[in-house]
Amino acid sequence: MKGFNEIAVIGLVFGTVAVSVPATLSVAAEESYASAASVSAADIVRLKPRAPRLRSSAALVMDEREGVVLYGRKVDERHPIASVTKLMTAMVTLDQRLPMDEVVTIMPEDRDRLRWSDSRLPIGARLTRHDLLLAALAASDNRAAAALARTYPGGRAEMLRVMNEKAGYMGMSNTHFADPAGLNNDSVSTARDLATLVDTASHYPLIREFTTTGKFTVADRRFGKSISFFNTNRLVRSSAWEINLSKTGYTDDAGNCLVMHTVIGERPVIIVLLNSWGKLSKYGDSGRIRDWLLRNERRALQLADAPT
Predict the structure, then answer these.
(1) Angle at the Cα of 51 (from 48 to 56), degrees rounded to 5?
(2) Would you list the domain boundaries of the chain?
(3) Which of 6, 80, 87, 164 has its CA 20 to 30 A from that of 176?
(4) pTM of this prediction?
(5) What CATH topology corresponds to 4-305?
């Protein structure tokens, strides 16, 4: 990914025109979309397009291949990031190359005593580290994240130290992790920093796999019982989206958050949405961003084909 000093950020406001993308394309339409793949991020930036009307307080859309921000709103404003934190928890866990088949027991200290959030993992359950990581990433289970931190070499405090150290190495200068699950309001970041987090996390095959698993079960080795989960991002279960990595987050203070590494048309894109208003608004904003990008790709293509 190119450095953010090469980034152009567009920040105007306008009313969105809905553009639907058919599930199956005609030959002509397929050729049109294929041609749009030749449109560079710079071509779109030069259009100076009006911004999509979003319900997220902070947002960023980046062309991942070229490292150019196509749209940004309050990209350097710090926000609590809730469970988006778990991407860094997963990375430092995997960096340690801990045995994924090691069985970990859920302990009373893994219970969330800050927000008293629910968990489908009962105290005393015995799961592999693989299944804990899957539950933490796909289902955003806080108890799973706590167990991963407790069993990290050196414990929770050492994990947090390494998480913040890694954030520093990655250039995430406006980010701080105060807990492994994102329940603490002091776990904060910016849309710009989170684009870096998503880009880095996308290089971990297991994180890509787990964060895009729509539904799954994990095995409680104590009784041989299966526990079912669904991914907290409903878009990964939609055939309308090609998603390579995703993570949701929510607390009362952070609002609804969503980060994704996805493909729109033929363009790999990183989307960051923070403090989205309403439970479903992050999904609506994702659709508005997709329509906005496809529309402006077509505009750029038409201008390139227009006679001079």
Answers:
(1) 150
(2) 4-305
(3) 6
(4) 0.88
(5) Beta-lactamase (3.40.710)
